Amino acid sequence: MRKLTARQKEILENIHRFIAENGYPPTIREIAGAHGFASPRAASDHVKALQKKGYLHKSNLPRSIKLLPKAYGPRGLIQKEGMLKVPLLGRIAAGLPVLAEQNIEQYLDLAPDPRNRKIDFALKVTGDSMTGDHIQDGDIILVKAQNTAENGEIVVALIEGQATVKRLYRTQETLELRPSNPDYETIRVRGDVSIQGKVLSLYRIL
Q1: Which residues are designated catalytic?
Q2: Which CATH code fits 84-203?
């Protein structure tokens, strides 16, 4: 495995810090300024090297740097001392259900309090069907993995291989997945629904 140079590791850690503090990635020019490069070309070369080694991805769009799981490594190349690392697994629909991508996009750093220790994974929400519960499009939900839930709890559920987040209610004849936005209809299912977990809280980047 090709190792990082000291400068590449420094740049990778600073990209991570920038994203954590601002909620979006730095530009090449901002990276150059932070490291005292005479021109953006040197920063661009380092970013290309990090991409080639599999630590990040960048498209031609502005602010498109995305850290990949390898950036954290099996022991966490980027790690805040004492923080919990929770995997962010693709996206989940809060609207019309869409297939959830079960790949780790990155890891979130959470404070090691007792509530956060119950969280197993995170998912990014698309859609606005749960706005009544203050879950907005683009929010990240923090989920405890479990296959059961009580009436009224917000769950991540799979229906015929498609995933959605809704409030769970059981009736005598059906199982209902109810949105909290009145513009959406309740999903009624006869038979079993595969519950993937219970939503505990939000992780919102302001």
Answers
A1: 129, 166
A2: 2.10.109.10
